[in-house]
Amino acid sequence: MNKQEQLIMNVRDLFNKMAWINKFKMEDSLKGYKPSEVHCIETIGKNVDTNVTKLAESLYMTRGAISKLTKKLIKKELIESYQKPDNKKEIYFRLTEQGKEIFRIHEELHKAFQERDKVVFEQITEEQFDNMLSFVEKYSRHLDAEIKKQGITIN
Questions:
Q1: Do 26 and 74 fall within a single domain?
Q2: Rounded distance, CA 7 to CA 132, Å?
Q3: Residue 155: per-residue pLDDT
C-alpha cells in the first residue's frame, strides 16, 4: 500500500472511529432525532438566512431531500420558515425555541468531545496544524473541481 492509499484509509478509519465513539452519547442526548435532522438544525443555527439551496450545499443532499427534511422539522416545531419583506420569492429557515435547545445540546456534546480529545491536539505544533489544514484545503478544492467537472449538482 502506498502512502496515498494509507493516508486515505487512515483518514476514513479515523472518521469512522470518531463517529462510532460519539454516536452513543449523541443518540442518548438527542433521542428521537435523526443525525440528518440534527445536522440540519446545526446548519440553520450557525448561519443566517438559510434556505433550501444553502442547506443542500452544506449537507451534500438534494434540494428535494432538504425540502422533505425541513417539512419534518417544521412539523416537529424545531424550525420555522420565513420570508424577507423585500423578497417574497425566497423561503428561509430559523430555529424555534425547541430547535435552539437541540442546537445547544449538540454544541455542548461537540465541546465535550473536543475536551476529551484535546490531549492529542495539545501535542501538535502550529506548523503541523498549518500543514494539515493546507493539505485538507487543497484536497477539498480538488474534490470541488472534480464535482464541477463531472457536472454533479445538488438539485
A1: yes
A2: 12
A3: 56
- CB under 8 Å to 18, separation ≥6 — which residues? 113
Instruction: Dig out the grid coordinates for 136 from the structure.
Output: 485538507
DSSP 8-state assignment for residue 112:
H
Shared domain check, 131 and 110: no
- Of 100, 53, 57, nearest to 78 by C-alpha is 100
Per-residue pLDDT at 124: 97
Residue 107 C-alpha from the chain's centroid: 12
Same domain, 50 and 109: yes
- Rounded Cα distance between 23 and 26, Å, is 5
pTM here? 0.86
Exposure letters 87-116 (e unless 16+ CB within 10 A, then b): eeeeebbbbbeebbebbebbeebeeeeeee
- From the first residue on, what is the mean pLDDT of each consecutive set of 10 residues in the chain (155 residues)? 94 95 94 95 96 94 95 97 90 97 97 97 97 96 90 68
- pLDDT value at position 152? 74
- Helix (H) / strand (E) containing 92: strand 87-95
